[in-house]
Amino acid sequence: MAALAVSGLAFAGGLVPGSESAVSAQSGGNSISAADKAQGAKAHPELLAEFGGAVSGAQANYVERVGRTIAMQSGLGNAREDFTVTLLDSPVNNAFAIPGGYVYVTRQLSALMNNEAELAGVLGHEVGHVAARHSARRQSAAQKNQLLGVLGSVLSNVLLGDSMLGQLGQRIASTGSQLLTLKYSRSQEQEADRLGITYLQRAGYDPRAMATVLESLARQNALDASLKGSSTQVPEWASSHPDPASRVRDARKQAGSLTGRREAETFLAGIDGLVYGDNPEQGVIENGRFVHPKLRFAFDAPEGFYMVNGTRAVTISGGSGKAQFSGGKLEGSLEAYISGVFSSLSESNSTSLRPSQIERVTVNGLPAAYGVVRTRSSSGEVDVAVFAYDFGNGQAYHFVTMTKAGGAGVFNPMFRSLTRIGAQEAGEVRPRVIDVVTVKSGDTPALLSQRMAFSNAQLERFLVLNGMREGDPLPAGRKVKIVRYGT
């Protein structure tokens, strides 16, 4: 269970010409108010908890320096210290900012970039949202539409895709941080994109970097969708916004023939050694198996399903059903625990979900129990199941699954697979890390990609990670990224 994504990195192209907020944001007419600082300071620890915590050390210090440099171009702060820039320990591609001078980017998105200008562009885009007061407007709209309490993690929507049961994921700790990370409108994304490019120019960076990072994001999403067996997956940062191709075109059009510094080697040195993908401290997914070496358990997804690791839960998705795995305190019986999970789902969706009976079983030596409820959703009758396990010492873990009526059995292999693991299997789990290497004479993408710590799509992963296309030249002396196993 690692980090969730919020609706931050939703790049778009083009500013709304002549808009009042655009003029104010570009001229630095907004500043960080005392109220903004208080709001940001309150939400900051909640967001860190929600997104896997902060990375520390040289890599985080480098990202902070770049973030403060680009944030200063907005005119919001009078000093670099007015901005708090955080590298999040999250395996998802995302970035966002909140009022009060708080700016965030995940290590996964940072690893996808290939130069400092791209990093500055992403962070500048997010600062642009704050400069244009977008989150304040989204908060107002949410309050008017009574969305409070319904805005939990993005994971829940990915999990079910059904409004009736869209709150399986745990909510962000407070309504304040929920409101700060709302989705922006199409026009707001367009405005932030234009502002980000403006900030790049002011800082002396190559403004064309916005287009290249957008292209890398689109290609990474397409690769992820292909690996999961889908050709239609839409990334969180792209939902309800112009298609990736149009964003790239618009960014290139705005940048025009302008140039500037890109700082590729400085950037690569700054992220060398960064953890890539799941952090073993939060559990890892490998070939359809989730292993948590610290908590000492593992389970397998059903054949044909894929998993996504999140801060508080793991999601399991496939064509015949959706599921989520998480844990909680066991203060009474398993029956009471399961009833509590159903009760929570009922409260979140104003729907009564009560199993007629709860069955006791034993799974790999673990006391377990389950209940199933049949109910109606927007897509017809569905079965919602809760399968829970007693791990002792007051700790329980459980699956929540949803399938079409009569289809709950598709998850039986997964239910039966949950097991404790020993020290040997736990010790075999290693992190993947970014390793910056220098291309030697005779090296090719195909040759270098064989060093990638993946069992599939090695070449495709290498090309996307390095912003390359098949057939691109790879001269000796160039530095590139590979993903290897760490220690």
From TrEMBL:
Keyword list, A-Z: Hydrolase, Metal-binding, Metalloprotease, Protease, Zinc
Region Disordered: start-end pairs: 227-259
Biased composition (Basic and acidic residues): 244-253
Keyword Protease appears in the UniProt entry: yes
Cofactors: Zn(2+)
Protein origin, superkingdom: Bacteria
One cellular component term from this protein's GO annotations in UniProt: membrane
Protein name: M48 family metalloprotease
Organism the protein comes from: Novosphingobium aureum
Lineage: Bacteria, Pseudomonadati, Pseudomonadota, Alphaproteobacteria, Sphingomonadales
